[in-house]
Amino acid sequence: MSKRRYLGVTLTYASMINPEPGIKRAPTAAEQVRALANAATRHGGVLLERVATARQNEGLDEDVLQLILSVGAEAIILFTLDALRRGYRIDAGLLTKMWEETGRIDLLIEDVRLTDEASFRNYLAMVGAMNEVRERDTSEGWHEVITKWDNS
Amino acid sequence: MIDAPFEQFEQRGFCIVPASSATTLDALRMHIRDVAVRLIGAPAGDVDVDLNTLHDHFSSSDESAKFRLDLTKAMLEGKDISAEVFAAFGDYLPKLVGNDVLSQRVPNVVFQPPGDPHPTELHRDAPANSPYEVVVWLPLVDCFGTKSMYLLDRDSSEEALSTYRRNPDDRGAFQAVLGQRSVQLSVPYGSALFFWPALFHGSVVNTEGESRISLNTRFKNLFAPLGMKDPFRYFSILHTSPLTRMGMQFEREET
């Protein structure tokens, strides 16, 4: 039986030091590729040699869709969902297109495997909600609502 | 009567409620007991006895700590534990978090054998957790005295925090507030403690001669403000209302 062919997506962190609270050092590209290869193997697949790379807070270029086709990827494995983040928003459109091309998306850091339409739709709903919530949480209007809230 | 605990929850930041589905809770406890005895290679007997005497199977803190981690992972195989907890307390939790619910993906297991020198240090969850979450602390055995946990209610947590902010180096003053104001809770099996994540809480060395085993997990509204923790790592959608599903579909397709 042939192994599922995973296209890996790594993330270039904006800062290698303290990339997020509690994490001292960001993983290098080579470390991420090793982790992705191990994860792909664990889930019955193999990581393709070509890897796509996103830049933190800039998201992933839509060229990845062409790459999926050209290397014959049957699944995507992202080091983290943050690879699809542009500012506060996760690129739900690109996530959907990647799903439509492959029907299988794994997220290593989040420990999530989207394997069927129901699991993808549920995850997409969460992405949509979190995009809206993050945008609202950081807006001036929301800050005003909270500070002027009359508890009585 | 369902509303009564929430008056206390809002005033003090916590309440203890009985399960609204004892059958669901019993099945959950049985599942965790079954996984536990499988991991330690022991025969299953009376569920209450099995859980209260879990410590008999370990000779060191390291062994019991490893067991706790193994149990956390194994209990999730084929089971959404947070969903079961939500169902067991389903008459109450929607009143706090609504019908569009995020639940903690991996509930925490706490196992405190008698005399274990590593109780839970005093802390509060928010921040970094969102203050819009509720923590559900679910004992799988009767928890009382040192076998339970302590917390400071809303006023006391606020006082402790202001004491600390006034004198960050005066550990004695902070300890005095803690000593005077902390409440050691008795939570029998069949009930859960709901508490607000901004409350200080912790536990002491369990000297009761029985094991304490409990779960804690968190729920929040899907649209509630986030804390600093990445929601995609810690939460997943448990429920959405029909209206929310319609609204989200509309947004995807028409905006």
Q: Would you give an account of this structure?
A:
Chain A is α/β, with parallel strands linked by helices and 152 residues long. In chain A, 41% of the residues lie in helices and 27% in strands. Chain A is built from five helices and nine strands; from the N terminus they run E-E-E-H-E-H-E-E-E-H-E-E-H-H. Chain A has helices at 29-42, 63-71, 92-102, 117-137, 140-147, and strands at 4-12, 17-20, 23-25, 45-55, 75-78, 85-86, 89-90, 105-107, 112-114. In chain A, helix 2 packs parallel to helix 3 and helix 3 (92-102) packs antiparallel against helix 4 (117-137). The mean pLDDT of chain A is 93. Chain B has 255 residues and is α+β, with helices and mostly antiparallel strands. Chain B has one domain (4-149, 185-254): Sandwich (Jelly Rolls). Chain B is globular and about 60 Å long. The mean pLDDT of chain B is 93.
CATH topology of chain B: Jelly Rolls
Average pLDDT number of chain A: 93
Low-confidence stretches of chain B: none
| Major β-sheet profile of chain A | 5 strands, mixed
Q: Outline of chain B, from the CA principal axes?
A: globular
Q: Which CATH top level class of chain B fits?
A: Mainly Beta
- Tertiary shape of chain A: globular
Topology readout:
The complex is a heterodimer of chains A (152) and B (255).
Chain A: E1 4-12, E2 17-20, E3 23-25, H1 29-42, E4 45-55, H2 63-71, E5 75-78, E6 85-86, E7 89-90, H3 92-102, E8 105-107, E9 112-114, H4 117-137, H5 140-147
Parallel strand pairs in A: 1-4, 1-5, 5-8
Antiparallel strand pairs in A: 2-3, 6-7, 8-9
Helix pairs in contact in A: 2-3, 3-4
Chain B: H1 4-12, E1 14-18, H2 22-40, H3 47-52, H4 61-74, H5 81-88, H6 93-97, E2 101-104, E3 108-112, E4 133-139, E5 150-151, H7 154-166, H8 171-181, E6 183-184, E7 191-195, E8 201-202, E9 212-221, H9 231-234, E10 235-239, H10 242-254
Antiparallel strand pairs in B: 1-7, 2-9, 2-10, 3-9, 4-7, 4-9, 5-6, 5-8
Helix pairs in contact in B: 2-4, 2-5, 7-8
